[in-house]
UniProtKB/TrEMBL annotation:
Protein name stated in the entry: HAD-like protein
GO-annotated molecular function: phosphatase activity
Superkingdom: Eukaryota
Keywords: Hydrolase
InterPro entries tied to this protein: HAD-like_hydrolase_phosphatase (IPR050849), HAD-like_sf (IPR036412), HAD_hydro_PyrdxlP_Pase-like (IPR006384), HAD_sf (IPR023214)
NCBIfam families, per the entry: DKMTPPase-SF (TIGR01489), HAD-SF-IB (TIGR01488)
Source organism per UniProt: Dendrothele bispora (strain CBS 962.96)
Amino acid sequence: MTIEIPQSTLPYPPLYQGKKFVVLSDWDGTITNYDSNDYMTDHLGIGREKRRELNMEILSGKQTFRDAFREMLASVVANGHSFEECKKILRENIKLDPGFKSFHAYCKSSDIPLIIVSSGMAPTIRAVLSNLVGEEAAKEIDVISNDVEIKDDGKWEIKYRHPTSGYGHDKSQAILPYRSLENPPILFFFGDGVSDMSAAAHADVLFVKEKPYGENDLAAYCVNNGIKHILFEDFEAALKVVKDVVEGRKSVKEALEMGKC
Ligand SMILES: [Mg+2]
């Protein structure tokens, strides 16, 4: 079987070599309390109901994530919202998972790289990240995401990392190179939604966020596809499991058998 590797239009940060553990995490709705692209679509674009219809079409395979997500963001542009205005609104409204700062501090003190792997656009992620964790901490975190193209007339459009992939950004491409290293690290992946479908099957330990308002699309995808995962409510709960694996109290298999933390 030939596995097609999509060409990336955007650079990747260097791989972290010689690490025992690497954390890769989705940004929107996973590290943040609310997905920023959903926020824009719901409040400035086509609205929540239509957005959920598109999410369900992605989940059922009727539409690709790439095309449906482009449509959601285009609805924000069609309503006349500039990219700068969106960035400002997101900085004001998107909050951090309550356990993320401690989780990040633990990773840093334990020499575990933490990489954000997102289908969002780099400038909005950076704007919100620096606002939430501070400029210094934000600079230390690699972000592998999509980008934006701002036109002369002020209109903007998402620029996909992998335009030939139905995922737009195939997140497995951020994970798989670690598997080819001589001594591959144990890979933790955190996600919540349809943008994480491309990553779900490729981590050693997959954490899937359960949100109080529902929309647990990644959990549904994992159940439908028999992918083992651990449901988590916030990074404080997840940190306990990560510590157990890192500090040798639990094997990867035992962690996955928990099912929920
Ligand atoms: Mg997400």
